[in-house]
Each structure stands twice: as structure tokens, then as C-alpha cells.
Amino acid sequence: MLFDLCVEDVVTAIEGPLLFLRRNVNVGLGDAVEVTGASGRTRIGRVVAIDGDQVVVELLEDTTGLGVENVRVRFHGEPMLMPLGPGLLGRVFDGLGRPRDGGAPVAATVERRIDAGVINPAERGLPQDFILTGVSAIDVLNSLVRGQKLPIFSAGGLPHDRLATSIAQSARLLKDDGLEFAVVFCGIGVSHDSAEAFRSAMEASGALEHTAMFLNLASEPTAQRLLTPRFALTAAEYLAFDEGRHVLVILTDMTNYCEALREVSASHGEIPSRKGYPGYMYSDLATIYERAGWVEGGQGTVTQLPILTMPADDISHPIPDITGYITEGQVVLDRGLDHKGIYPPIEVRSSLSRLMDQGIGAGFTDPDHPALAAQLFASYARAAQVRILSSVVGREGLTATDRLYLDFGDRFEAEFVQHADMRELEQSMAIGWQVLSLLPAAELTRLSDAQIAAHIRTEGGDDG
């Protein structure tokens, strides 16, 4: 039950976003706090540290004009809550779940803690069923499965924002099970221009009608970034488990979240770990990523597509490294492909969806989908090897078959990986079969004779 405790003249110091208070009430870590200064403006905060005679409150808004005198602090006695109810979709919220679109607050029917625990492993169902993203390199080769968490590893300057918007606009279930599909789009530490671009693109495409957007701006206090994905996921869980929807959550950029975590940790005086990030970053990220999934016997699912930019293009950096341990694969964007003008610049050899087999094949997509994916991957890997050899001996020094692999690699990138518009799965698969037709049938060792006869029109030589 909600209760308020009010105390006055207890602030002993203010350091950045931190308020140091004399402890004369019983409070708990994470409890919500309201701080009102002499001007009458009320700011939101939370308790981040407690010792014998002191309480530390972290404000989630700026402390401009706030002094140590004439400050009134109200403790709610419980963690931060988010009001939830019908009407979440089609709305734009800030990083603390407050309307940013000028509309009225959501008519709440329930309030939920934003730091809710992850799904009980004993009750968690195995992710299954295919989610169409409209991106060929993901749909055919690194399929996203309902209930999965599949991150996108990008880098500075690569078009991950464009890709995130495109997926948010076009994502849907391939199989209709009677439940509606919804998207929760969460921008963490984004610029004002990027936030407006996200909102405008979703609104212009009509996708905003089935989307709830949470936009935390780079100009807003750092501490807000730690709560923005939790507000977004709380809304997603309500849409999934209360309203019975399949929800895709897009989180961008998780690197901004981790940088905020490092900054806040340093301000608290905590001992840093690898590259200055707190030692608990793994468990902290797990409290976000592990909120994806579904409950056995229940309706509704939460699927996550977190996006992060790898500092210095380093996939072994703590942020992508830890994320890879928690999640079920990764989709990697490549700067070399981007320099070639290929969009989306997805490097399929470095990408992996560990749960792909749970969502493709007979009964899910197409019976020949697994074989096509395996053959495309194997052929492109061989083309990459031939490119290295060609750089040494030249094209003329290659065998006729190796030259076909060179051509296959170029066509695979230009025709299959590259596309500006959303593709249906059938269209992506048709292009896959088409580029494989460049190779001799004898090279298509991952396909059966029946599949070759049904789909391959050999251009690269005899049929074996």
C-alpha cells in the first residue's frame, strides 16, 4: 500500500544528481522519492544508498536551482511504479513513462513496478514461431523467433537507426494465431533529431498505431537512461501478458545505457571493473534482457531486438561481449559492406540466431528454408575464402569454379543482402534461390536433388 513520509531540512549536501540526507525515516533501496525545492518545482528521484545515518537520493531530473535549504523530501515507501491501462499504443512517452506527445496521461487500471523480476525459468516456454522483419539477411539466415532476444551489433556511423525504424514499421508474425502484434520502441540517449526522425517515420507509415514509443533524449539527465528500458519493458509486459499480444521490443542504443551505468556507478564511488564499467554490469543487463519470453500456458509474448554500437568496432568490448553471453545470438553490421553502399550492411558470417531452428521449416515458414539458409551461408563463406586467394593470385589465377564463387559473393551482397524496401519471406527466398543458380549443381552440397530440381536454374555450368 502506498504511503508518504515527509521530512524537511534534512539535505546535507548536493553533488551532481545526488542528494545526501540525514536518515530519520525508514526507507528501502530503490524507493521512489519526490523532492520539492523553494521554487515549488517537484523532481522525481529514487533511493540509491543507505547507511547508518545517511540516505542518498539520486534525482532523475536536473538539480538546477535546488539548494540544501527549504527542501521538502517525500518518500513513497515503495519502488517506482508505472501506471498502465488501455491506450498505450499510438502514444509517445519520455524516458520516465510520461506523455511526450502532448496527450493526456494513460487512464491507468493498474500500477506495476518497473523493476519487476524476470520470468521464472520453471514457467518459461521455449521461444518458437517466426517473426518477419522484412530484412532478407535476418529472415532467411538469422531468423528472429517469438520470445527470443536477438541483439544487433552495430558501430558508430552505421545505419542502425534506419534499420531499427524499418523493422519497427514492418515486423509482424508470419503465422496468425488470433493474437494482435504490437511494437514497443525504446530510444535511449538519442539526439533530439533522431527522436523526431523515429517518431515522424512511425507516424508517416501508420505503424505508430500499434506502437508505444519511449524516447529518452541525450540532453536529459544520465540517470534517466537506466530507467527508460525498464519503463518500456513494463509497458511491453502489460501489452503481452495482460492484453494478450505478441510484442516486439526494440531497444536502441544499449551502449548509451551502459555508458550511463558506468557514469552513475562512478558517481556513487563504486569500484570499477573492466574498462571502468561496474562489475555488476552482467547481472544488470540480465535484468533487462531476461524479461523477454513467454509463460507456458499463457497468452502473449515479449521478443527483444536490442541494438548496440560497439566502441571502436570491437566485438570483444565488454558491452557486446556481455550481451552475447546473455542473449541468443547476434546480427552484426559491417563497416566494409557499408562502404560498398550496401544496406543493410549485415555480415552474415559473423551473425547467428541460436533459436532459428525453433521458428523455421515445415509448419513455420517453408520446408526448404533450413536447407536454403545452410547453402547460402556455406557458399558465401567459400566466396570469402576465394576473395582472399584472389587478392594474392588475381582473378585469372583462379579455377573456373572459384571465379563463379567470386561472382556469387558479389551478387549475394548486391541482390540478397542489399535492399531498401521491406521484403516478404517468399521474395527473400526466391532471391536466395536465384543467386545460388550461379553455381554448378555439384557445388550445392547442402541441398537435396529434389530441392535443386525444384528451385535451381543452373547458370554456372552443368548440373552435376
From TrEMBL:
The keyword ATP-binding applies. One of its GO terms (biological process) is proton motive force-driven plasma membrane ATP synthesis. Signal peptide: none annotated. Residues 134-353 form the ATPase F1/V1/A1 complex alpha/beta subunit nucleotide-binding domain. The keyword Nucleotide-binding applies. Keywords: ATP synthesis, ATP-binding, Hydrogen ion transport, Ion transport, Nucleotide-binding, Transport. Residues 359-453 form the ATP synthase A/B type C-terminal domain. Residues 11-77 form the ATPase F1/V1/A1 complex alpha/beta subunit N-terminal domain. Gene3D superfamilies: 3.40.50.12240. InterPro entries: ATP-synt_VA_C (IPR055190), ATPase_F1/V1/A1_a/bsu_N (IPR004100), ATPase_F1/V1/A1_a/bsu_nucl-bd (IPR000194), P-loop_NTPase (IPR027417), V-ATPase_su_B/beta (IPR022879). Coiled coil: none annotated. GO terms for molecular function: ATP binding; proton-transporting ATP synthase activity, rotational mechanism; proton-transporting ATPase activity, rotational mechanism. It holds the Pfam family ATP-synt_VA_C. It comes from the Bacteria. Produces ATP from ADP in the presence of a proton gradient across the membrane. The V-type beta chain is a regulatory subunit. PANTHER family: V-TYPE PROTON ATPASE SUBUNIT B. HAMAP family: ATP_synth_B_arch (MF_00310). Belongs to the ATPase alpha/beta chains family. This is V-type ATP synthase beta chain. It comes from Marimonas arenosa. The gene is atpB.
